[in-house]
Write a structure and sequence with these properties.
The chain has three helices and no strands. The radius of gyration is 17 Å and the shape is elongated. About 85% of the residues lie in helices and about 0% in strands. The mean pLDDT is about 90. With about 70 residues, it is mainly α. It starts with a helix and ends with a helix.
Length: about 70
């Protein structure tokens, strides 16, 4: 599902940026990374809307149904 793929990609971006902030970097690089981090979090906030939450719920429901033992 494309929505979930995009969520994963953006989460990976955030994790990568956070890791870069933990490294010894110049003040300019830190500023650039923080700007990218702000953009990524805005993107996540924008796309983590009700439609995505419903899609995640649907996926969870599908897994729950698939894992139920057959009678």
């Amino acid at each position: 599902d494309r929505l979930l793929e995009e969520l994963g990609e953006e989460c990976q971006t955030v994790l990568k940026l956070l890791e870069q902030l933990r490294s010894p970097i110049s003040e300019r690089d830190r500023t650039d990374i923080l700007a990218e981090l702000v953009a990524a979090t805005i993107h996540l906030n924008t796309h983590c809307d009700e439609a995505l939450q419903e899609r995640i719920s649907e996926v969870c429901d599908n897994y729950a149904v698939a894992e139920r033992p057959m009678k």
